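Methods — Computational structure assignment.
A single polypeptide chain was analysed. Its primary sequence is given first, followed by the predicted tertiary structure written as structure tokens.
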Amino acid sequence: MDDQIIKDITAEIDNAFTPEGAAEIGMLTIKTANQTVEDAAMRPDPDQLYHELWYECEVCCLFADSNLGKSIYAVQMADEISQTRNVLYVDCELSDEVGRCDHESACGYHYPPSDYFRDHPDAKPGHDWRELTAEERIRLLLKPKPQTPICTIPEAIITRSVRPEIHSNLTLYLSTILDPVVLEGVIFLYRLGVTKDRDTIFFQIDARGRCRTGKIMKYNPSNGHRIKDENVPFKITWVHSLLKARGSLPPSWALTQCLFGEHQLPQYPQRKVALVESEKTAVICAALMPSYIWLATGGKTQLGDKLSVLAGREVIAFPDVDGYEEWKKKLSTSGSLNIRISDYLEKNATPEDREAHIDIADLLFRQSTVISKKETEKPSNSILRYFAPEHRAEVQALIDELELVPVSITKIT
């Protein structure tokens, strides 16, 4: 285990949101013009979406009188942009019958909106938005949208699966490099489950304590690597899929994922957040650097609405070495989210590391040095395991200061 790497990563997280010359005042960040320019230089140049009229991260508004071709021009823009990226074109008023054929001279199809509303008077909005007062427009914009209920996994499934006394193949490997008290602490912290086949269950529990699903993964107990052999069935499966297959969940049950470890956010509102790709990496980093909340997206491409829960938090992201450019580009357009992208792996990875597509946990363990287990010989560890990981240092200090000796442990019912 490379202690210097742990110190470097800790320092990077601590200093990520306090740039030289900058000061935080409530929602505002005060910094010099030079620092502002330097920060902007770190972001990738925005790509053109539609010639020089529209760039990434911009909002393009077409403003003109009625019947001058705004909608037609918007469709042309969307069609051109769709040649290189996905485009969602939303028409909030008309039927798909409305439009003009590109080959009108050949087929003669032309069904304008005026004809559609003439034939379907009930479809015409009750009021033209231009006739609404300012107050009515604001009320219309602020009207709450109906939300689809979140489908969840029963709590009893988690309770039956979290059994630290039974090792999964992953925790069996981690037991060779982590203190057993620390390992048990992260099992409870993340509520890591284990199957009868010794596979690991990474439950996705959201900030409101609802379990969205659980990702079940197979690991090699000798090296902690994920099993990717195509001949091995069910290398990755999901708790909700298994429950639906045996009829324990209704067919209408729908998956809505969240960040792995998200349930810690309300528990530790002042802690900085570190974001990684792999659930295993989040668990290992939490064991080694417990002063931060370590969350996982579940994959390089799993950046999207699930990040909205990080609003208002200071977040530093540690992408895998092969995901740095993609995360840098995507997270630079994350709007109001305060996410910094770490380049630690980018700067320190060797050519062999890049070929192996390592992540931050691999960098920590690449020297294959086992953590010293002298601390596990202390009798006080039989007591410490009953305290939350963030309080164990203080409890140990109290035990040492008063020279306390554990005598017995009694469960209070």
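Note: Residues 102-106, 367-377 have pLDDT under 50 and may be disordered.
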